[in-house]
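In the previous chapter we treated chains in isolation. Here, by contrast, the input contains two separate entities that must be folded as one system, with a combined length of 848 residues.
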Amino acid sequence: MSERRKPYPFDQIEPKWQAIWEERQNFHAPNPGEDNFDPEKRKFYILDMFPYPSGAGLHVGHPEGYTATDIVARYKRMRGFNVLHPMGWDAFGLPAEQYAIKSGQHPAVTTRENVAKFKSQLKRIGFSYDWEREINTTAPRYFKWTQWIFLQI
Amino acid sequence: MDAVDLSSDIVEPISTYRGENPNSVRLAYVADVPVNWCPELGTVLANEEVVDGKSEIGGFPVVRRPMRQWMLRITAYAERLIKELDDLDWPEGIKLLQRNWIGRSEGAEVEFMLDKEQKIHVFTTRPDTLYGATYMVLAPEHPLIERFVTEEQWPAVREYRERAARKSDLERTELAKEKTGVFTGAYAANPVNNEKIPIWIADYVLLGYGTGAIMGVPAHDERDLEFARKFKLSILPVVQAEGKTSEESIGFIGDGVAINSPVINGLPTQPAKKKIIAWLEEHNHGKSAISYKLRDWLFSRQRYWGEPLPIVWENHKYRALDERELPIVPPPLDDYKPTGTGEPPLAKAKEWVRYSGNALRETNTMPQWAGSCWYYLRFCDPQNDERFVGEEAERYWMGGPKPGGVDLYVGGTEHAVLHLLYARFWHKVLFDLGHLSKPEPFQRLVNQGIILGEDNQKMSKSRGNIVNPDDVIDQYGADAFRCYEMFMGPLEQMKPWSMRGVEGVARFLARVWRLFMNENQAGEWVLSAKLKDVDPDKAEQKIMHATIKKVTEDIESFSFNTAISQMMIFVNAFTNAETIPVSAMRTFLILLNPFAPHLTSELWEKLNTGFKAVRGDITEQKWPVYDEALLAEDEIEIPVQVNGKFQGVLNISVAATKEEIINAAEKLPKVKQRITDGYIKVLVVQNKVVNFVTK
């Protein structure tokens, strides 16, 4: 054998299925009113504390909770639940700005880069998030409503 | 700060308020308050963001300084934030942290008269000790001080105030080894006996806590006793401890019997409290009161990277911008760094700040907690541009029989009094305003434990023990990474990373692969010839159903590590089998799928190519159910003897009758040989032994 043999070909299998899931949207959770919404199914909302995307990228502590919730999400889907399992980015605030100052860049730039990095890392682990629901607290379309809520308070 | 009527839980939103004083109707208000100023970060911080006198982020020193700030009146929700924890399925430790942070205590608010007009309010949990109040202490920043401090004492008071301003709360309270203070020269009247008691200022009393003034009862409070002894103030015991003299009761802080207190003499502490409160109310000197440690939430930051507040200032008054102007996007700024003076960086964008001829934009931004206070709601309906969340989507996803909407929330414990408290507060406000269907955001909360480095130390750059998920995935794959994260130990526990552990789990997954796949001579993976479309035998059915049961129950109870152990047992049971039934393997793949979704998806697909295909990929399958009947120990082994000598073992159903047992035993080969001439009798000890007696 010429190259070091992998115990099984995970390096081929894993990207293959991640691409299939993305294409088939297996993990999209339909809202009431959507075409494929099934009113017979019970809902189950499983939430991870969304990360603030730091410059260091994901560490092994993040996916600990994310794996646990992913197991429950996949299990509940097979038990017939309509499972909401979303992910997003808590990207405003001191840590993000401190990091930007240190690296001499604008926080908008570092935030964009860090989010991209986090996202690709999470996708590599095969989490069954409904990525259509991805949110970013620094997107004007999102913080418009943060400001609106402040005006209600 | 202005008085606000909070008799109703609903406070008018500023967006619709058209009156003169928006500070009086809202939960958000502007106040000049002593704040936690962090010079290094160039911004103020909320109490929750200050740990041991240092910033939670970066660990920089924090000092007190008065500044005009936006505050959120979270204290108006203190009672509900405590009470409504009861029906949530959260770890008790987190509930306790929130309860302690909110810090509810019952007692009385008492008025001490300074002169005919001016009163000083004090909150005490021990109104039964009022007769023992021999002096008062005010926080150095207390606004009343300037009104009554004597001319003689003014220089000392002023100097003391300046020194106190440079200290953090922690330095002023817990860290202070020795009590300091200055006499103001003034006296107040104790309402119960009209005695004049001296008024001091001392920095161990904080303006932000209670009323910023305390009554000193040195006989029954440790701090007060220390203070009184140092400054030679009088000490009068008013609670007698059981079995002690009044003199010996000095320093006693528990419940006892009231002494030297005419109105309540002889009463035990609890009824004494009630009676003195009734007396105070009757004489208009005070009332029963509840106090909270929780302070209003400091909601503005002098930083660039946050949501601008949708507010403009005109003629020293503020007003809300119209909803239609949202979002207010921060101006692009090349130099966005903190100014160091406390003036927010947004002030540098002069054109942006000038909203109109007379109106200037607010330049503070929101703290980092704002966006995470409601993100779980946005997930329900993230594309909605008409409402923060559509009503139908909110009712559906946040619905259910329990008070909390999110069914399961998983994260670290570090947010116990920050995010988890703030989000509950916003949620309740929005609920009260009729925008939400449930009073609580998160029904069930689970905390994951911290993962340590291989050296059992916290992972950190400086220790060089950080594990990068990408490296692990490169070497072992994502499925092995996922399974290892769960196999390390109970989710809630703190545990060290181990690369050998990852290897072990990776070997398990490789064994799963080889149950299904063989490498042919061309080096290609093909379906194993051992896989057969046959029914599993009894033993195989039993382990299959035991595995379904265990994995199902373990997922429900978050015991992922033991679920994996059971699946290892399953794989071991089949590893050396000559024939591997496909149906049992399909069931197993579904059980393993939530843990190792890629591997199981691939094997599921492979089985569909070699055997009669099952519709849909593995994610579309139904979770298997187990049959309890198949789990029972259904066969037993009974040793069989002839004339007391062991001849063999009989495997037979537990339900077999005596007759059936004898019939089966007769047929054992060795027994058969020895009873060819018949036998005289046979003894059957139920399920234990069968003995044939010949001649």
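The CA atoms of residues 174 and 204 of chain B lie 9 Å apart. Confidence is low (pLDDT under 50) at residues 1-11 of chain B. Compare these points with the single-chain example from earlier in the chapter.
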